[in-house]
Design a protein that fits this description.
Layout (H helix, E strand, L loop, with lengths): L8 E4 L5 H13 L8 H6 L4 E5 L5 E11 L2 E9 L8 H16 L3 E6 L2 H5 L4 E2 L6 H6 L13 E6 L6
Parallel strand pairs: 4-5
Antiparallel strand pairs: 1-2, 2-3, 3-4, 5-7, 6-7
This protein binds coenzyme A.
Length: about 160
């Protein structure tokens, strides 16, 4: 019997992915595209991460879905490897987050981002940060950019027909 052919797929992150997740985040954080994260944070939050793995076993993209408060979730640390961009991987990762968020009962999903146009293609709308007080008084106040955050908040209500 022939071995099952592997395909590109999204899967739960494992411990053995943590350093590659760190490398991908660092690469884009150094270019100012998202906030940096430490290895400790990645280990603590490992269960929030999924990875997009190629048929040959290479990690081409990552994202994490964080629960912030009752009904509120955040898409974090979305990155796609430079040589794998514009192939729909980012979209697939965010769609995966939306699906998981619906499964666990998150009603309002947001991201803080420098690429609101990308999220707009997935139905997210620009949102006033004041509508996300649990995020601001939880994580943002500890961020080195606070209170001069230059990221745009975008969000989607998952009970909307379009979500
Ligand atoms: C932003 C990012 C995740 C997009 O991933 P990707 O796999 O290249 O994007 P996709 O191929 O899934 O693109 C989906 C759609 O968004 C559009 N898009 C992608 N990047 C975009 C950008 N920077 N600005 C506007 N639109 C963008 C694509 O043109 C595509 O449109 P289409 O559906 O009409 O064809 C990726 O470019 C990346 O990792 N960038 C560096 C890190 C970063 O900015 N992360 C976001 C932090 S919130």
């Amino acid at each position: 019997m022939s071995a099952k052919k592997k395909r590109n797929h999204i899967r739960q992150a494992k411990m053995s992915d943590a350093k590659e997740i760190l490398r991908l985040i660092r690469y884009w954080a150094e270019k100012g595209k998202l906030l940096p994260r430490g290895l400790n944070d990645i280990y603590e939050r490992l269960r929030d991460f999924v990875v997009y793995e190629s048929a040959s076993g290479k990690i081409l993209g990552i994202v994490s879905l964080a629960v912030i408060w009752e009904n509120l979730g955040e898409v974090r640390s979305l990155v796609v490897a430079e040589d794998a961009q514009s192939k729909g991987i980012g979209k697939a990762l965010v769609r995966h987050c939306v699906k998981t968020a619906k499964t666990v009962g998150i009603k309002h999903l947001f991201a803080l981002t420098y690429v609101p146009e990308f999220f707009a293609k997935l139905g997210f709308k620009e949102t006033d940060k004041q509508e996300l007080p649990q995020k601001i008084w939880g994580d943002c106040v500890r961020c080195y950019k606070f209170p001069d955050c230059d990221e745009t908040a975008v969000s989607i209500w998952l009970d909307d027909e379009s979500a």
